[in-house]
Amino acid sequence: MTRKDKEERGLAGAISRGRTAREAWVRDGILVSREQFAERWGVSVEEIAQMVAKGELFELEVLGRLWLPAVFLEVPREAVIKVNRTMAEAGVDASGALVLWHQKHGALGGLTLVQELVRSGSLDINAILGERATRGKGLRLPLNIRTRSVLHR
Fold first, then answer.
1. Over the stretch 104-140, which tens digit does the pLDDT of each residue have?
2. What pLDDT is recorded for position 3?
3. Is there a contact between 79 and 150 (Cβ–Cβ < 8 Å)?
4. 101: how many CB neighbours lie within 10 A of its CB?
5. Rg (Cα) of the chain, in Å, rounded?
6. Which of 67, 90, 95, 104 could form a disulfide with 31 if both were Cys (CB 3.0 to 4.6 A apart)?
7. Sign of CA dihedral 36, 39, 45, 48
8. What backbone phi and psi angles, to 5 degrees, belong to 62?
9. Tens-digit pLDDT profile for residues 6-65
């Protein structure tokens, strides 16, 4: 194995692959800028920052700028806030939360969070977090989380 092969497999390679993935998320529209997001939600950039600070939204830094998941624009604000707060309380970081929003979940019959929210108008985020924890992902769930009814139509 050459030195270059070792570097590509080591920490430097992982960091590089992570950076490349995040840049692709921006390029592919999976992430939108704070400014675009604020405009679409009809709030100020400062309000977005406050919501991030409270755990109601999360951001990822890419290329020196802060970006939010475009998927949040597909469902009602109240649902986004409640789901994100629950994930934050469970210790899910921004990258992990982004994956949870986009991943299909067995606890939801193979649907993503957005698909379930659109289909049923509610979501049991604890079932998803519990499913993830039982698969050995290392999440510790607080006992006081109860979010069966994230959204009522």
1. 888 788 888 888 887 777 776 766 666 555 454 444 3
2. 57
3. yes
4. 22
5. 17
6. 67
7. negative
8. -140, 130
9. 556 788 888 788 888 888 989 999 999 999 999 999 999 999 999 999 999 999 999 899
C-alpha 83, offset from chain centre = 9
Sign of the torsion angle spanned by Cα atoms 58, 87, 145, 80: positive
Residue 22, C-beta contacts closer than 8 angstroms, at least 6 positions apart: 31, 60, 62
Give 25's strand partners.
Answer: none
Residues in the chain: 153
- Nearest CA to 151 out of 124, 122, 131, 130 is that of 122
Q: What is the DSSP letter of 50?
A: H
Residue 61 phi, psi (nearest 5): -90, 125
